[in-house]
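dumping the sequnces here before i forget
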Amino acid sequence: MNIKEMRHLLQTRKISVPELTDAYIKAIQKKNPELNCFITITEETARKQAIEAQKQMDAGKSGSLLGIPISVKDNISTQGIRTTCASKMLAAYVPEYSATAFARCNGTVLLGKTNMDEFGMGSTSQNSYFGGVQNPYKSGYVPGGSSGGAAAAVASGLSMAALCSDTGGSVRQPAAFCGVTGLKPTYGLVSRYGLVAFASSLEQIGVIAGAAEDCGIVLSAIAGRDEKDMTTWQAPKINPLEELGKNIAGIRIGIPAEFYTDAVSDAVKKAVLQAAEFYRKQGCTIIETSMPALSYAVPAYYLISSAEAASNLSRFDGVRYGHRSELGNDFLENMQNTRNEGFGKEVKRRILLGNYALSGGYYDQYYQNAARIRTRIRQEFAAQFDECDVLLTPTAPTTAYPIASKTPVNTYMEDFCTAAVNLAGLPAISTPCGYDAEGLPIGMSLIGNAFSEARLIGLADAFERNFKRQEAKI
Amino acid sequence: MKNPELIKKLFSLSGIVAEEGELLELAEDLEEMMHLMDQVKNVPAEILPDRQPAVTFSDLRQDIVNPGNTFPRKFFVANMLEKEQKS
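..and the predicted 3d for all of it:
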């Protein structure tokens, strides 16, 4: 059931907001011990919000998200509710304020904070101080990451929609692995105020939901200028839902060859190219294109994001935020012990890599070159959008894989379908387009020019209406 | 990444202490990561776009002496006058 249908049930009094909330809380209590997709379940808050939402509804008030149960990734600040970033460092941190994106979800019912890779660093949702998340289609398999908790929760019917962040694919890749829809908006469309910073020039708050239309409904609520985040754009004002149901004939869809290399499994290639065929039959033009610099996107992304992470995470010193070690004879020793105890291995790896890339003698070779590759990738995307309206690519080269079956570097390599989009600050949406022989979902991505969210949502919606989804097993 | 002194410096710069075992493990991970990152170091010149010239102090100084550009000039002149008056 999508948000529109749920709103209809609520407005016609077929179900009340407290009843709906109760059903979701019970489902979470039943499934979360196995999935581990929630770090914090906010049952008390949810029940209070449900009563308040019902009162507003009874008073004749309406709102696109009034009474809708949602979840929020645990790196997005929620006033009075702990926000851990799945890290020991912030395990007891309770923010004094809410992120703008969450605050704009007026009338929603917050069910809980979802599990993730620590500080958003990872693509498996196993790098969590609170334990790894299971894939709802197959236990023992990764749900993707870093927003794996959010994707698993939506796929298993434990949340109607989820707010989460995407730094190099963290919304889209877990959405693909869990058979749901994930939208990463244009950089600057949604405020990052209250999002715990990992790589500030790359990350953006996005949405995971059951359908493209639902992503658009949530995006309508959260998008727009925020005086507290000076990187948000003043204009243009967009309506993410304006292309829903419109004729898609004539839209030019680019297929860049570099997204379909041998690293992509046959099952994924077949499913995404079948989707291209669907669009062709609807009257879209399919254009084969090329983006030569794409092969450098992954290392450039890891150098830039790690450099920014090394800087952003330097604030965690045991004095101002979070965990503080008992060890150490002076400030320096105490700070080093705090960081050693508070951060997990992946976070340490990224901090070390970031500091290495920024250090004297290496800066020009690594960080500076990465920044120039980023410019080249932006130029290549711009050239693509001279010829095409959108690009169609796999979201990930494979389907979900067994937990602990890949080394960190192997998982980095898998990001080549998503990371370039963040380097260029563009919007993209991932939606399911097939299942492999094991029944694991396959995701395809539609990438658009800046502020083309409405077109992406319209195109994804057109596909979803003709695609039969399989339910999650858990 | 096989240079133990470099690894220790990097840990110190990152504000992290580690036991010998963890240090070795992270150093090995970093070495593997650097194989991937070296693609950026060795990127062919034709892939890289032209580098924008950096803004230098002498550019800013030119702004001061060049009456056509007034932003830093106003700021510096006001500061100089203030210092002169104080002295």
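The mean pLDDT of chain B is 77.
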